[in-house]
Amino acid sequence: RNLHFMPTLSALNVFICIYICSNHPPRPVPVPRNNNSSIISAVDMGISDEEWERLQKALDWPIPDEEITHLIQSTSPVHSTFSIVGLKESYKVGENISVIITARDHNKNLKRYGGDFFKAKLFSTELKASVYGEVVDHCNGTYSVALLLPWEGQAQVNVRLEHSSEVVQILKKYRESSFPRTHFNGYFEGSGPKNTRIREVVECNLKWGADGSWRKGDCCCEHKDIRTGTVWQCERPKNLSCDKLVRHSGGRLENPLNLLEQQLFSK
Ligand SMILES: *[C@@H]1O[C@H](CO)[C@@H](O)[C@H](O)[C@H]1NC(C)=O
Ligand SMILES: *[C@@H]1O[C@H](CO)[C@@H](O)[C@H](O)[C@H]1NC(C)=O
Ligand SMILES: *[C@@H]1O[C@H](CO)[C@@H](O)[C@H](O)[C@H]1NC(C)=O
Ligand SMILES: *[C@@H]1O[C@H](CO)[C@@H](O)[C@H](O)[C@H]1NC(C)=O
Ligand SMILES: *[C@@H]1O[C@H](CO)[C@@H](O)[C@H](O)[C@H]1NC(C)=O
């Protein structure tokens, strides 16, 4: 399924990873259907229970049992290794080869937990062909991959550490938080005294995430998208009312990473 061989479209190889080692969250309770088109539920999106399970499995990522405190404890692309199990002189087209990946930290110590994001492929530069394999996380610092051998001739194996499990945790943490990464500008316009026009630019953002709001207190004007239920918050303009919002544009970006986190990304 995921081991598709596409000689002319090798850039489109599909990578699917399924983890077998942790529990999946229960499906959210669908919002009861009513006559109100502003509410979209999982049921309305047409996702079956089986599809929901499949998506959860595909998205799930095991969490290390402890937080690391030093950079050197993160997975090292230099010291991590892989080997081909039972390497033979030759194989038949259609056979699999099995690859074992061993993750190590920057001190060359074996990792004891999983969650690293590895990609593994079989490729031929001559044929401009490649095929990715499913990486199975054993949650103990080792991973296995089955790679299909779809063509005749030579093939090489490449394993790439996309992100260490530590970086995956950081990505997960910020994905689930309402930390504002992007800000927008909200443009308010209205009439002032003596036929003047007042224009004010304030900061806006989406209201979302666990904390609910990117600004505390009664900070903001709220604008709700009645189709999706999404709430847009703009700082309250000084001299104009909330309904005078006319447009918005992209604003500043904010980097949430602390120093250790930044270093983990660059390691
Ligand atoms: C939805 O609309 C139908 C017909 O207009 C009505 O019979 C039904 O009671 C409504 N349901 C709800 C939950 O409002
Ligand atoms: C539909 O939903 C909107 C937003 O949640 C709410 O203001 C409105 O009263 C609802 N209308 C009905 C008929 O339930
Ligand atoms: C190769 O590996 C895939 C994925 O693990 C498996 O579904 C398939 O049966 C294997 N094929 C052979 C010939 O072993
Ligand atoms: C990791 O788990 C796999 C699968 O359970 C097992 O075969 C392997 O021996 C384990 N490796 C280590 C280093 O514990
Ligand atoms: C709001 O109005 C006051 C009084 O007219 C003016 O001094 C102030 O600059 C205005 N503030 C903004 C943000 O336009």
Overall description:
This protein is mainly β and 267 residues long. Helix content is 12%, strand content 31%. It is built from three helices and twelve strands, in the order αβββββββαβββββα. Strands 10-11-9-8-12 form a five-stranded antiparallel β-sheet, with no helix packed on it. Strands 1-2-6-5 form a four-stranded antiparallel β-sheet, with no helix packed on it. A hairpin with a 5-residue loop joins strand 8 and strand 9. The radius of gyration is 25 Å and the shape is elongated. 17% of the residues are buried. The structure holds 2-acetamido-2-deoxy-beta-D-glucopyranose (5 copies).
Write the H/E string, N to C.
HEEEEEEEHEEEEEH
Strand content: 25-35%
Nearest-angstrom radius of gyration? 25 Å
Give the overall shape, derived from the CA principal axes.
elongated
Question: What is the average of the pLDDT values?
Answer: 81
How far apart are the termini? 34 Å
CATH superfamily caption of the largest domain: Immunoglobulins
- Catalogue the unreliable spans: 1-23, 37-41
Summary of the model, kept short:
Keywords: Signal. With 267 residues, the protein is mainly β.
SSE arrangement:
Blueprint: H1 49-59, E1 81-84, E2 96-102, E3 117-124, E4 129-132, E5 134-137, E6 142-148, E7 156-163, H2 165-176, E8 182-191, E9 197-207, E10 220-224, E11 231-235, E12 245-253, H3 259-266
Antiparallel strand pairs: 1-2, 2-6, 3-4, 3-7, 5-6, 8-9, 8-12, 9-11, 10-11
The chain binds 2-acetamido-2-deoxy-beta-D-glucopyranose (NAG) (5 copies).
